[in-house]
Design a protein that fits this description.
Shape: globular
CATH class of the largest domain: Alpha Beta
Helix content: 10-25%
Number of domains: 2
CATH architecture of the largest domain: 3-Layer(aba) Sandwich
Largest sheet: 9 strands, mixed
Order of helices and strands: EEEEEEEEEEHEHEEHEHEEHHE
Structural class: alpha/beta
Strand order of the largest sheet: 2-1-17-16-14-3-12-13-15
CATH topology of the largest domain: QueA-like
CATH superfamily of the largest domain: QueA-like
Radius of gyration: 20 Å
Number of helices: 6
Strand content: 25-35%
């Protein structure tokens, strides 16, 4: 399967540079994956498309200020790193700009030495492991020195950093936001619960896959990087009961979907567990956990576009994206939303 099959032309002016004033004011494209029919609404009317007994699955990860600017101690060269994932204690996997300058043993200093990072391992594609050296609490230091890691296609400054967090974010560790969740407000979640839609939370810390384009020509040759996930016993019980009762499980975002599919792939049911997901979903994949998805609009030739094409059908996604472009929807992280459903 060719990566080029998942390409499309997007006018630059449709790439949303800033979030809307009201989280729930984004537009909502509804795609019926069985019929291919497309309709249009606004996200604040999402409740109209949810049924009593549905289970809504949200990713409660929290984005950390993962972008750091420092200097290489030996040469005083400016070095930019992006924290991708914490491997253990103070060892972090990072994406490094000017990575050729960073070898095992290289020390980068941030904030006049408030934080130092010593390279302990070198990988391809600009990836390095660093041991973080500091006094005090790491995340408190990171809050002082780090910047919110907005995607490279966003060029406007984000005034309110909380707008790159969901209102239900809880566990710190992501290098990017689970953007489908950015549309929800606390008031909307309260109304959803009042309709007897069960809300459960999983955790997946978003990592390198969000930043790395697919660099091969054949889809099957792409190597997915791993991301940490966790599911609680309470969440697993709720989801297993929904499966038994044949009720809808609605994933909010591709991160939630990938977590659910990873666990079902590995255990054939939902269970309290944690681990590293490397699941790569593209057309031909058989879904075990989810058939309904709330998501944003994804980049051309991205693994996320392949995922939604697997769920809804490549032709249906192409048609829906063309209509969204014609109707001037806002795209990507701060853009509009899509509901993929089968009924």
């Amino acid at each position: 399967m060719k990566v080029s099959d998942f390409d499309y032309v997007l006018p630059k002016e449709l790439i949303a540079q800033t979030p809307l004033k009201d989280r729930g004011a984004s537009r909502l494209l509804i795609l019926n994956k069985k019929s291919g029919n497309v309709s249009h609404d606004h996200f604040f009317n999402l409740l109209n498309y949810l049924n009593t007994g549905d289970v809504l699955v949200l990713n409660d990860t929290s984005v950390i200020p993962a972008r750091l600017y420092g200097i290489k101690e030996e040469t005083l060269a400016t070095i930019e790193i992006l924290l991708l994932k914490q491997k253990n204690s103070d060892i972090w996997e990072c994406l490094v700009k000017k990575s050729r300058k960073i070898k095992v043993g290289t020390v980068v200093s941030f904030g006049d030495g408030l934080l130092k990072a010593r390279c302990t391992k070198v990988y391809d594609e600009g990836i390095r492991d660093f041991k973080m050296i500091y006094d005090g609490v790491f995340y408190e230091i990171l809050d002082q020195l780090g910047e919110m890691p907005l995607p490279p296609y966003i060029h406007e400054k984000l005034i309110d950093q909380d707008r790159y967090q969901t209102v239900y974010n809880k566990y710190r560790g992501s290098a990017a936001a689970p953007t489908a969740g950015l549309h929800f407000t606390k008031e909307m979640l309260k109304k959803i619960a009042q309709k007897k839609v069960e809300i459960v939370y999983i955790t997946l810390h978003v990592g390198l896959g969000t930043f790395r384009p697919v660099q091969v020509s054949e889809v099957e040759d792409h190597n997915m990087h791993t991301e940490f996930y966790q599911m609680t016993e309470k969440c697993a019980k709720t989801l297993n009961k929904a499966k038994t009762d044949n009720r809808r499980i609605i994933a909010v975002g591709t991160t939630s979907l990938r977590t659910l599919e990873t666990i079902m792939r590995d255990y054939d049911n939902f269970k309290e567990t944690s681990g590293w997901s490397d699941i790569f979903i593209f057309p031909g994949y058989t879904f075990k956990a989810v058939d309904t998805l709330i998501t944003n609009f994804h980049l051309p030739k991205s693994t996320l576009l392949m995922l939604v094409s697997a769920l809804a059908g490549k032709d249906n996604i192409k048609k829906a994206y063309n209509e969204a472009i014609n109707k001037k929807y806002r795209f990507f992280s701060f853009g509009d939303s899509m509901l993929i459903r089968s009924d």
